[in-house]
Structures are given as structure tokens and as C-alpha cells.
Amino acid sequence: MKLASCGHEKEVRKLIASGQWPAASPPELRAHVSRCRACGDLVLVSEVFRQARAESVAAARPVSPALLMWRAQLRRRNTAVERLGRPLLGAQIFAFMVVAVAALCFLGFEARSGAEWLTLGYWRDGFAQLPQIAVLQWEKLSSGASVDAGWGGIVLASAFASLVLLGSVAVYLATDKS
Amino acid sequence: MAPIGKRMRMVWEFAWPGAPARLWPGGEHEAAGASVCDSSTENEVFAAFYARSSRPLWAYLARASADPALADDLMQESYVRFLCAAGAPSLTTDGEAAARLYLFRIGSNLLRDHWRRPRAASIEEIPEEFFASRGPEQQSDSQILLEPALRQMKPRERQLLWLAHAEGYSHREIAQVMGLGAASIRLLLFRARRKIAGLLRASGATNADRRIP
To answer: How many contacts, defined by CB atoms under 8 Å, are there between A and B?
Structure first.
């Protein structure tokens, strides 16, 4: 399609924009518009769209601006909280990775030195004997005698595991709250 | 008075857990009392801007999307994004015209995102107005003429025509709103205008023929 603009288009546009078309337009211009396709299109489309705009503007039912301000405030707040949470999550991932690497190093070191406790049989026997050992140790403890070193290790490991678990829960709750 | 972009940059004061969060506009060194005064004034400025711009924006979104319910949602989202945007023009320093252009641009982007999103609308999602067929006595001349013609236009053409002929924006302003090159607007608008003028004339002739007893 060839762009065939008309020299009178600007003048017609100006009159339409000021609401003076066709009342304040010279008769020559009106005669030109009736002949010129480009100007005729401009007048027709502008009149229809301006009327449609007036009707649509009257039909609009905007909500209260206070509601929008509140929603915007809420969104900004959520964005800020998300932004704050991002480095925290990074620190948590980093801490987890450090612990995982340390655990792997420890296990690797133990496996190299041929530790007995890394074999499946050691744990199977240990768990089978656990009730008897517990009763024995309890009797020793109640009679005032010192407990075995192996049993003390189990207690220590259990206490440490509980501490880690509780600590993780506390950290989770604290970060969730903030 | 702080610009509207700065106005929404909130600073959180420390609060004990359970205490309501207090949000002050402006910088952290700003006095609390002054902030409250500024905030109320700026809220009034925004409310006045909203009163003047919300209806034209809704009209644009409703006509371009041909869905009044969608226009409601997009209009609200446009204002929320306008208030949250760090780079939004200030009502006091940049002026209302710049803010309005920015708002229309947000609305245009939202419309474009909506059209790009592939989705199958279920029957429950379609607004009631879609099914309610209005009689000719309830329709204005512009609706009888314009709606069928607009339905045959492409979304981008509807946007271009509305911005140029209903809002009276210049080619440069339309280019800003639609994110297109200013040079291409003239040709696109010329083609769209010629197309819709033909449709309107055909529609007008058809309606005139129907009126003949």
C-alpha cells in the first residue's frame, strides 16, 4: 500500500483535536475533505473513535485509588522481603555444602584407615546387642559405677545429633519469622 | 515534595515481632512527622492523577482487548506497577503527561503479555457481558459501527488507532507507548486507518440498507 498523505491532513487533524470540525472549518476545506480519500478517512475514523472514547470513559468504573496504593505497598514489601531472603538462602546452601564436604572427608579418611564401624556387620551386631547393653549400663549407672567408653560415645553422639536437630529447627523458625 | 518514584521507596523501621510494620516514605533520615505530611499530600496528588487518567486508560484497554473484565484487571495492575516502578516519571517534576504515557505503556505491555500467553478459557471464565446480546436500542451508533469493525482489526492496529484517534497522541508518543520505532508508526497507522475506514463505510452502508423498509 502506497502512503498517500495529503497536505491538508495536518489542518484537519488540528480542527478535529480542538473540537472545531466541521463548524469552524472553511467551506473550501470541507469541500476538499469530501473529495480527498486520506482526509475523508481521517475525519470518519476520528469522529467514530472520539464518540467511542466518550462512551467508554462514561462506562468505566474505577476502584478506589487507596486500594491500589495499598496493593502497591504490599508488593513492594514482599519484593523487599524476597530480596532480603536471597543472601540468607545462599548462606544456608553454603553451610550445608561445607558440612557435606566435611562429612565426606571424614568418611573417606575413616574408610582409608580401615575403621571397623564402617562395615555393615558392626552396626547389625551393635543394634542387636543394644537392649542388653542399655540394661547393663543402666544398672552400672544406678549403682554408681563408671559407664563404658563405647556407651559414652553413643550418648555423646545422640546428644550431638539432638543438638544439631534442635539448632536446625531454631534457625529455620528464626529465618521464617524474619 | 518527593517525586512519586521516590515516594514509594519505603524504609522499614525495626519492630518487635507482632508489632505492626511502620512504613515511612522517603529516606531513612526523614523525620517521621514530615513523612506523614508528605505521604498524605502525595497520596492526594496520586488520587487526583488517578481520577483523571483511570477512565481513559480503562477505555483504551477495554476497546483494545474487547473484554471489559480483562480491562478492569489490567488497569489495576498497571497502576500497581506504576507505583512500584523505580523508574516511573514523577507527577510533580516530570509532569502528568509523561506519567500518563508511562502508564499507557505499562497497559500496552500487559495487553501484549496477555495476548502472548497461550491459554484455553473455560466457559466459567468468560464474562457474562460476552453472552448478553444487547438489542439495537441499547447500542449507540459508535458501538454498532465500531465494534464489528474493530473485531476485524489486529490487536496492534486497534491499539494504534485508539491511541491516535481517541487519545490524540502524536506518532512519537504512540511509538513510546507501544515500544515501536517512531518511523514505522506513520505507515502502520495509515494502513490501519485505511482498513478501518473501509470497514466503517461498508458497515455504515449495510446498516443504512437495513433501515430501508
So the answer is: 113
In a domain, A102, yes or no: no
Domain span at residue A158 reads 119-178
pLDDT tens digit string along B39-82? 778 888 999 999 999 999 999 999 999 889 999 999 999 999 99
pLDDT digits (tens, 9 = 90+) for B169-201: 999 999 999 999 988 999 999 999 999 999 998
Strand partners, B12: B23
Distance CA B106, CA B56 (A): 14
Nearest residue, CB atoms, B55 vs list A41, A60, A177: A60
pLDDT < 50 regions, chain A: none
Give the H/E segment covering residue A100. Answer: helix A65-112
Domain enclosing residue B195, as ranges:
139-213
Same domain, B150 and B81: no
Q: Do B92 and B157 reside in the same domain of the chain?
A: no
Q: Which of B100, B115, B130 is the last residue of a domain?
A: B115
Record: contact B8-A50, CB cut-off 8 A: no
| Co-location of B48 and B106 in the same domain | yes
Give whichever of B11-15, B27-31, B100-104 has the largest mean pLDDT: B100-104
Cell of B5: 518514584
Report DSSP letters for B73-102, one per residue.
Answer: HHHHHHHHHHHH-TTPPPTTTT-HHHHHHH
Instruction: Please write the tens of the pLDDT for every residue from A40-50.
Output: 999 999 999 99
What gap in Å lies between CA B8 and CA B31, rounded to an integer? Answer: 16
Q: Write the pLDDT tens digit of every residue in A65-97.
A: 999 999 999 999 999 888 887 777 888 888 888
Number of structural domains in chain B: 2
How far away is chain B from the Cα of A19, in angstroms, using its nearest Cα?
A: 12
Both B155 and B78 in a single domain? no
**C-alpha grid cell for residue A65?**
485509588
